[in-house]
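Late entry, evening session. Most of the bench is empty. Finally got around to the prediction I had been postponing all week. Sequence below, unchanged from the version circulated by S.P.
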Amino acid sequence: QVQFVESGGGLVQPGGSLRLSCAASGSIFSWYDMGWYRQAQGKQRELVATITTGGKTNYVDFVKGRFTISRDNAKNTVYLEMNNLKPEDTATYYCNAGLATPWGPWGQGTQVTVSS
């Protein structure tokens, strides 16, 4: 059973940066396409970015040019580099396996708060 543990969130001022990490365990990470998702308070969880097993990336419009997803298969980890953060980026961020539909278990997420 694969498991995901997210980390790296925190409080940052508008315009600041954070790097999130998602460590996978329990299965062969390199076989999985991966995605980052986020859920703001009172809203549905939404997709932010995806990366295939071959390293092809895709982003939703509201993070293009600001966020970068990457992976290190040797470390079983996927990253989300977030720059020029905005208050509307405030949310709990999660990772999961899959592209169109996440299929793994959800972890506890990591909270990102963008506020002055």
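Two things to note before I forget:
Residues 23 and 93 are 13 Å apart (CA to CA).
Strands lie at 3-7, 10-12, 18-25, 34-39, 46-51, 57-59, 67-72, 77-82, 91-97, 110-114.
Will write this up properly tomorrow.
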